[in-house]
Amino acid sequence: MSKILIVMSAADTWVRADGSTYPTGYWAEELAAPHAAFVAAGHTVDFASPGGVLQPLDAHSADPAVAGEGCAEHVAHAQAALAAFGPPFDLAKVDLADYAAIVLPGGHGPVVDLYQDADLGRLLMEADDQNKIIGAVCHGPAGLLSATEADGSWRFTGRRMAAFTDEEEEIFGTAQGAPWLLAGRLRELGARHESGPAYQPYTVQDGTLFTGQNPASSAPMADAIVAALAASA
Q1: Which are the contacts of 7, defined by CB distance < 8 A and separation ≥ 6?
Q2: Which of 38, 117, 209, 212 has a 20 to 30 Å separation from 218 between CA atoms?
Q3: CDD domains from the entry (predicted)?
Q4: Which pLDDT value is given to residue 51?
């Protein structure tokens, strides 16, 4: 079976446009659901982050009023998986040759650091060059913004993708005062952003690029990636 790399943000704080701070971390469902699907299919999963920093849990993703009644199971799975793995690999030292897929979960962290992380950008462009699977869900697609060519152009211009929508950011209460909004930025740079109803599962596949709109899209996106890996085996 294959090895899959889950790339986490290292950010625990999102600095707002007015200089105030908003605590962030990984979103439990977006890490747990893909991890569970990949392991159940027999794949090995590694974790990496900028500097090898273990990002904290976003407390909102452990709140049933926000993340739904099933969130405790996601939290438990994510925490157990991270504890069993140990410190994440340093993203700068990752060799893409070891992996068949690279997957970016969300939480707001990716709009803090991954969107401009040069090491992630290198890995994503290598993966794209080699037709390896790239997955990103919710705010994870912010990490795709790191894939800039030497001339400054964006590797994923013109590609179809889903991501956390501006409407969903408004509903969540974090749109006002955000330095920038993800879906709008993706469109500005030339992505063919697609979306479904707010907070309902919605995924997009464009070649080997698999994206999901929100936490509820995590499992469907992971299932699509598992199917693609099986088809290519």
Answers
A1: 47, 48, 49, 91, 102, 103, 104, 114, 120, 123, 143
A2: 117
A3: GATase1_Hsp31_like
A4: 98
Q: Model confidence over 167-186: pLDDT tens digits?
A: 999 999 999 999 999 999 99
What residues contact 2, with CB distance under 8 A and at least 6 apart?
43, 44, 99, 100, 101, 229, 233
Going by DSSP bridges, is the β-strand pair 44-49/89-90 parallel, antiparallel, or unpaired? parallel
- Those residues whose C-beta lies under 8 Å from the C-beta of residue 74, and which sit 6 or more positions away, are 28, 29, 31, 32, 33, 61, 67
CB 179 within 8 A of CB 17: yes
pLDDT band at 233 (very low <50, low <70, confident <90, very high): confident
Q: What's the rounded mean pLDDT across residues 225-233?
A: 94
Contact residues for 227 (Cβ-Cβ < 8 A; gap 6+):
none
Q: Which residue has the tokens 């209460």?
A: 173
Alpha carbon distance 12, 132 (integer Å): 29
Q: What CA–CA distance (Å, rounded) separates 94 from 89?
A: 7
Q: Which domains does the chain have, with CATH numbers?
A: 3-232 (3.40.50.880)
Rounded to whole angstroms, the Cα distance separating 142 from 82 reads 22
Q: How far apart are CA 113 and CA 118, in angstroms?
A: 10
User: Per-residue confidence at 1, pLDDT binned at 50, 70, 90?
Assistant: confident
Give me the amino acid identity at 204.
V
List pLDDT tens digits, range 82-100.
999 999 999 999 999 999 9
